[in-house]
Amino acid sequence: MTPPGADTVLVRYGDIGVKSTKVQRDMERSLETNLRAMFDSRDVSAQLDWQWSRPRIRTTDPEAATTAACETFGIVSASPAISTEPTIEAISEALVETADATEFEGPFAVDARRAGERDAHPFTSEDIERDGGQAVWDALSDPVVDLENPARTFYVECRSDEAFVFTDKRAGPGGLPLGTQRPLVALLSGGIDSPVAAWEVMKRGAPVIPLYFDFEAYGGVDHVARAVESARTLGGYTPNHEFDLRIAPAGAVADRLVGEIGPTRMLSLRRFMLRVAERVAEDSGAAGIVTGEAIGQKSSQTSANLVVTDCATDLPVHRPLLTRDKQEIIAQARKIGTYEDATIEAGCNRIAPDYPETNASLEEVEAAEPDLEALVAEAVAGIERGDL
Ligand SMILES: Nc1ncnc2c1ncn2[C@@H]1O[C@H](COP(=O)(O)OP(=O)(O)OP(=O)(O)O)[C@@H](O)[C@H]1O
């Protein structure tokens, strides 16, 4: 819950904190820029106050600011909080106000931390817990305390110049600020997996250039719409980084492969996609390619077949979902908001052969494959920007 009168959001980060001082400062600056952009893109009125690696966000809309912070890469958790004077009396008062407004049954605890200069306060965190806990006890009609297993914890963070009271530590994505890594080209089909894969590398700081292949007659009517919708959802996470969907025409290639290749058809199709992605990466300065593949999820994704697809490009192919089970991926797609987009009906299974090869050799695939270069050049020349 958001405490009544909350005027601040406290945010915490994880991996940034273990970097060397210089890298940490650079990353903090990126995080600050990204947070500001996130608030602006959602019209959330918020001012950032960045002191001693302990950012605080001043806001008149703590709920919206907390949600925006929890969707910003690099943030591990965020708490809407009441700010008050760093005195036991003021903290106790804020604790009582918060307890009065909180509905909960069972035991409570007060958990206090002090941060900042060592002798900034004439009291310890134990003093805050004892006196603050007593104030809450007096305010409740039927109080029970259990420090080990509370039903509700009232947190206090006491800094040199100010103290904060809050009850929630809402989870953010964690990871690193977007833009602190070189970009990657993400093959985005609009299915369940590839948007999650793209989100995963964004979470580690790499902006994404989304690339979709339009298989025209082989994709259902809504196949493109599905990709556009998931790109739009992912774009919400990257307000200050380019996120233009590239759409490559691939109907003619699909026709050709369906007409000419049997069991290894899907491998040649993947190889074609990786080659086009490589060209997009060259043009845009991207350092690799991302796909939503997982070992064994489809015949083209067996550990043997992944070797053959990877031979099509010199760039690293990142597969953040490599070891994930489908149910885990679905759960994450729901969480990040791309699952609904992926369920748009798009019937697009017709390219796959009836008996696909699961253990292909490179020689076998190359022998059956038409010269990909001309097909790749044609697709690259036909790339258009999607309207997000
Ligand atoms: N039309 C497409 N455009 C761009 N990338 C694609 C397309 N089809 C497949 N891919 C890429 O190849 C990977 C493996 O393809 P697969 O056939 O498993 O995709 P899918 O099941 O249609 O979609 P997803 O993997 O996103 O659920 C995808 O995760 C995606 O990265």
Structural summary, described in words:
The protein is an alpha/beta fold. It has 2 domains: 8-171, VC0802-like, CATH 3.30.2130; 184-385, HUPs (Rossmann fold, 3-Layer(aba) Sandwich), CATH 3.40.50. The chain has 13 helices and 14 strands. The chain has helices at residues 21-41, 62-69, 88-101, 125-139, 193-203, 223-235, 251-260, 265-284, 303-310, 326-336, 339-342, 362-368, 372-381, and strands at 8-13, 46-51, 54-59, 75-84, 108-114, 152-158, 163-166, 170-171, 184-187, 208-214, 246-249, 289-290, 317-318, 384-385. The strands form 2 sheets. Strands 1, 2, 3, 4, 5, 6, 7 and 8 form an 8-stranded mixed beta sheet that branches. It has a 6-stranded mixed beta sheet with strand order 13-12-9-10-11-14, sandwiched between helices. α3 (88-101) crosses α4, α5 (193-203) crosses α10 and α8 packs across α9 (303-310). The longest helix is centred in the first third of the chain and has 21 residues, at 21-41. The protein is elongated and about 80 Å long. It is found in: Cytoplasm. Pfam families: ThiI (PF02568), ThiI_fer (PF22025), THUMP (PF02926). Residues 63-169 form the THUMP domain.
